[in-house]
Specification:
The structure is a homodimer of 421-residue chains. Chain A has 421 residues and is an alpha/beta fold. The first copy, chain A, is built from 16 helices and 16 strands. The first copy, chain A, has a 7-stranded parallel sheet with strand order 10-9-11-8-7-12-13, sandwiched between helices. In chain A, strands 5-4-3-6 form a 4-stranded parallel sheet.
Chain lengths: 421, 421
């Protein structure tokens, strides 16, 4: 596409989104929930055309060098279609954060001060080639009163278009603006750069996917960015840990779903229990197919382990590799996490309450976990109902971001003639 | 200063602030409050050297073209010194937002999910030549667990240094890191540009002062910015308003302190009551010395009024000028506010609850006021105890920002061996 044409296209997208977002501010909860439920039904009803569109994408992807894991994520199985519909129904069941009264007080002069939830406005959402995310993100953004501009991975184009068409049709039926959910209609990557400069019409960008994409978005965007770069999640096993609990927690964190951001990537073991714990743990990890990269003390105890480099300690493997370090105690563990961690999720296994408290206080991560798997840093698991992503920043929302994290608030001051004296 | 020297100086400032902020994370409430109270006492005890330093600044300012209003702001009177000390004591009395448990729930699997307040980290605060702000900002930032780098207006240099020396001395006495409150030691403006690029060590910048300074900071900063550009605050007087209440609210909003961001700048009057209301209102405004710039209908009724341009409707006068427009009803008032407003504070005077509700729902401003003065959009007035500024953005905090708005949170997940299934 020629540059002026592309500029026009992006401006139209952003302007339409802004107009839609203004109408959404006063859309009723009923209207939004009716849309969510009708979309869920339509997705189930139209599973055949959706799967046909998805087949086109999957067949094309098989002819490229896409990994088996990514082809799996691209594929809409019957179970995934059901899960998508179910996800929309769950969002419909969540309380509406818009209009929600978050604070309500009367000042000594009789002025009533209320703080109520309002939408952010327009959200630009970039994501990987997982067509179910089109539906999840659309549902969450609109329930929180925001218009969303979706830009999915190019490999999922046909699937995304089929799903997006359903969401738009149902928006019209529910009496909501159809531009509440728009899909960037071109694959031209320059469109992303243009949209990232439109901070007069786009209020927030949420990039998901590889670290390099996220870094590019954060560098180029003129509006706020909700993001995390990496999840290099640690488990520290203290000398006073229940070692069989520690083993279960590490196996779960590493192996239950190794490709996600809250998977465990690095293990720190107190020297006092390393001799007893490591050989037993590694036997289980070996069975699960996990490769160990460790410090000299680890390698001494585990002959099959290779020596870890600093790059290994900094790595988010997203696969069956675990970096291991034997430490002299909590201070060294904290120092290691500060140096190599990504402020996402870090866990301690200990039976000692004081050690747990110190770990919790001193680890500066979005979620700090005591005696449980790092995999629990997730919107659904902590009770948000659903999530659009996880933030490792401290400004605005931190950790898993659900409906409420996609909103802002305003103050309503109601009086009967009060003036300042 | 040579560029490499300046770069070194700024890096040292930022690194020292970061180190101090890490120690502040675990500082006790007691320690922070002891510092606030001791600083208050020291300011009162050392009023003579402080006033001597301030005299140097004021004498120098008198030899420049600084306005009388600004010289007044620069001057530390005995009453202002007392108010500064009193402000610190009030912050000491406020609850500590750090460690505060904001949510606490147990999931069906027994995992306890807590959300607790944590500091943002390092704040870079730029402000006008008002030495009392040095003390207010230092107190708020440190109580919220943050290290702060202060950069006040150059005209207040001697006053700021004297006050900063007291705050630092008392930090040492309280066992807190003295780098928790630092003053940029050079007047070289290039230092600001360098600090705005240090997002690896500075977590937030808060610029206060003229719009051009704030725009420059927002454009250059690589970290988040808490800000508002303007306060072009409207009052809309509905046809069903108590007109004597409306008069009091407008006089208060315009005249009580015309130079501040929540002063009323623009009046919208329903056509049905304009004939009755405007002449009476303008008689009072005339007594108060207020100049009127109005639409043709206003000028018809008020012969002394001049015709308002679009620039007048967009202006934040910060002085005794009021723009006035007669409108056909709520839709035109809303449209005018959308076009010319700054999303800061807008008020309606009406006795009709439905009209008030519609105004509140459709005006997209940080504070929407019903039947009270726009001057109430203020941290102290709404019950925050104190404020560091007012935000018109929707990301992170909106409206008046007090202690809690200077913090973030983290999740603490506590289990007894839970794993994901």
């Amino acid at each position: 596409m020629l540059e002026p044409e592309l500029q026009n296209l992006c401006e139209t997208l952003a302007t339409q989104a802004q107009t839609a977002s203004r109408a959404l501010v006063t859309a009723s909860t009923q209207q939004k929930d009716a849309w969510l439920l009708a979309s869920a039904e339509a997705i189930e009803r139209q599973r055949d055309p959706i799967r046909a569109a998805n087949d086109t994408d999957v067949s094309a992807a098989r002819r490229t060098d896409m990994s088996a894991a990514n082809i799996d994520r691209l594929t809409l199985t019957p179970a995934r279609l059901r899960a998508m519909a179910e996800g929309l129904r769950q969002v419909a069941a969540l309380p509406d954060p818009i209009g929600e009264i978050r604070e309500d007080a009367v000042r000594p002069n009789g002025l009533r001060v209320q703080k109520i939830g309002v939408p952010l406005g327009v959200i630009f959402f970039l994501y990987e080639s997982r067509p179910n995310v089109t539906v999840d993100a659309g549902g969450l953004c609109v329930k929180a009163g925001n218009a969303v501009i979706l830009r999915g991975g190019k490999e999922a184009t046909h699937s995304n278009r089929a799903l997006h068409a359903i969401l738009q049709r149902e928006l019209a039926t529910a009496g909501l603006p159809t531009d509440a959910v728009q899909l960037v209609p071109t694959l031209d990557r320059a469109a992303v750069g243009l949209l990232l400069k439109m901070d007069d019409r786009i209020d927030l960008v949420i990039p998901r996917g590889g670290e390099s994409l996220i870094r590019r978005v954060a560098a180029e965007a003129t509006m706020p960015v909700l993001k995390h770069y990496q999840g290099n999640c640690h488990v520290y096993v203290d000398e006073r840990a229940d070692l069989s609990m520690a083993e279960r927690i590490i196996l779960n964190g590493k192996c239950q779903r190794p490709g996600v951001c809250n998977a465990t990537e690095s293990l720190l073991v107190h020297a006092a229990i390393a001799g007893e714990f490591l050989p037993k743990l590694v036997a289980s990890l070996r069975t699960a197919g996990v490769e160990i990269r460790g410090c000299p003390q680890t390698v001494e105890r585990i002959p099959e382990a290779t020596l870890a480099t600093d790059a290994d300690y900094a790595a988010e493997f997203l696969g069956l590799i675990l970096s291991v370090k034997v430490v002299t105690g909590l201070p060294e563990a904290l120092e290691h996490i500060r140096r190599f961690g990504s402020k996402h999720t870090d866990a301690i296994v200990t039976a000692d309450a004081a050690t747990a408290r110190e770990f919790v206080a001193k680890v500066d991560s979005a979620a700090v976990v005591v005696n449980a798997s790092t995999r629990f840093n997730d919107g659904f698991e902590i009770g948000l109902g659903a999530e659009i992503g996880i933030s490792t920043d401290k400004f605005h929302a931190r950790g898993p971001c659900g409906l409420r994290e996609l909103t802002s608030y305003k103050y309503i001051l109601t009086g009967n003639g009060q003036i300042r004296v």
